[in-house]
Amino acid sequence: MAGRTPRSAPSAATPAPDPAATGSSGRAGADPGPGPAGGTGRTAADRARERRSRRYRRDLRWSPYAFIAPFFLFFAAFGLFPLLYTGWAALHRVELTAPTDMEWAGLRNFTRLLGDDFFWNALGNTFVIGVISTVPQLLMALGIAHLLNYRLRGSTFFRVALLTPYATSVAAATLVFVLLFGRDYGLVNWLLSTVGIDGPDWENGSWSAKLAVSTIVIWRWTGYNALIYLAAMQAIPHDLYESAALDGASRWQQFRYVTVPSLRPTILFTCVVSTIGAMQLFGEPLLFSGSAGATGGADHQYQTLGLYLYEQGWVNLHLGRASAIAWTMFLILLVIAAVNALIARRLRSDD
Amino acid sequence: MTARRAGRQLHGGKVTYAVLILFTAGSLFPLLWTAVAASRNNTRLAQTPPPFWFGGNLLKNLGTAWTDANMGTALLNTTVVATTVAAGTVIFSTVAGFAFAKLRFRAKRLLLLLVIGTMMVPPQLGVVPLFMTIAELEWTDHLQAVILPTLVSAFGVFFMRQYLLQALPTELIEAARTDGANSWRVVWHIVFPAARPAMAVLGLLTFVQAWNDFFWPIIALTQNGSPTVQVALTGLGRGFIPDQSVIMAGALLGTLPLLVAFVLFGKQIVGGIMQGAVKG
Fold it and tell me: What is the ipTM of this complex?
């Protein structure tokens, strides 16, 4: 930052330039004691300039904090504080009916979880649905991005059209898919019947329900991830492809040996984001059950952790237990983040 | 295929178009079918084969959804929430992004790292105390309960920082300072105009997100209070109204405003996501 002095227009207009005062730094000038030119040098204009420069320095020093303050204040109030307080509430017995009545419970909420079949069921479901939604989704996104990276007529149309599911809310999307996956009159089973397959009862099967819930996730997020991959692909230097082509690499080999390696950081990024998303899966399983509520199917066959948290807190009214689930999720995410950091470092050292 | 034309300059072949059209159809079909189902009646939806083309009941079903599920109020509430959240996020993110991009202050790197770190914390984890707080404040069923917690976004701050690093010449700020402008004037007269394209994109992305937000609104708001569209749709789906075609009409109503936005600003939204991706 160059401007130590304000060099403002009015200061340039002061008639008699007082070399001693102008040359000295603001701090020395502010101290009247050892002033070199005695009392006569300090005119009203000088003092005004003094004030301005002090205000200027104060502005330079503090306004950055003022600019970032809203973010940190809101984050502290609605992000950090709730997270920490969740940890505190997890150690208590708290009911939704009297949230201020907290009774110390130690680690009981957590130990309960460990012996709770529904918790393990929800954890397993979250994992299974996470895998069968994230893996195909990212693979398809990679393929679509590769195709979008060609020169195409109507490329904007394709991009926007592929992104429209992203504009659809969880609620709207799930309601449509519930109908499409209907047992007797749903479109999916009708299509299957035209090729002679007797479609399953999607909602009540264990695997079919997970598959159906995953389909909603895949439908909503594939286009979004494709665009993220496309952006990264467009940043790959063109000459990498040229030299690969000169070496006789086929299109597939170019994709395999140029595109995918260059995309590794982005792929990792989308994996992490999708994993976090999968951990939080909530709206799809909640609404997929129609009237059944938060159980995630008659057999809890597609109850996720997010849904289980909601059921414990807002259906069974055990806020303390819900907090313990939230913190368990947080710990799992931390582990995922650590593993991710490890992989990222490994990848970097490979290059 | 000559070597010179290889790589990303390559034109897409027939297979490319065929596959893309297939995926596009898959993306659009559920939306189109929502409209088809919303234009039929419940009896027709309970027959095979399912309807593939529009019937004549669209207006009637929209009307029923509108009155029975309180869709008018819900749409209005959602508009208020999404607009406020988008405006707040854009303004706060721009000034914070400007500070991180162009100003010097102590602990800047650390604070920026903190901002990025907060992106990793999913909002679900704090939902219990958040609920306790708004219950204590008696904000349940009031829109501020869903507005305030999402008013700032770490992604937004980072997004604006990355944009302003390049788009805003430091000399311009210094010139303004030389002319006696203080930081607030610099923000108003230089940063905001320079950041306008990114602000528009961030605003659109935030609007879409706020419009579709589900987890927190369904906890903080009820169908009988002041629901957002997503909460109202939950009521439909849970069988307050057992008529499937009406449910689809409700889903259509909740999605339509964003679809219109996509038709109008699709290119910018796509650009924003891609930009955020490269730099994020």
Answer: 0.87
Provide the whole-model pTM.
Answer: 0.84
Question: Distance between CA B168 and CA B152 in Å, rounded?
Answer: 22
What is the rounded CA–CA span in Å between residue B112 and residue A42?
Answer: 43
In tens, the pLDDT along B63-120 reads 888 887 788 889 999 999 999 999 999 999 999 999 999 888 888 899 998 888 887 7
**CA distance to partner chain B, nearest, from residue A351 (Å):** 20
Question: Looking at the complex, does the CB of residue A162 fall below 8 Å from at least one CB of chain B?
Answer: yes
Count CB-CB contacts under 10 A for residue B32.
Answer: 12
Q: What is the mean pLDDT of residues A199-208?
A: 84
Which residue of chain A has the CA closest to B266? A160
Confirm or reject contact between A331 and chain B (CB < 8 A). no
Q: Of the candidates A147, A244, A283, which has its C-beta nearest B20's C-beta? A: A147
Would you tell me which residues 110-139 of chain B have a C-beta closer than 8 angstroms to some C-beta of chain A? 111, 114-115, 118, 120-133, 135-136
**A93 or A292, which is more confident:** A93
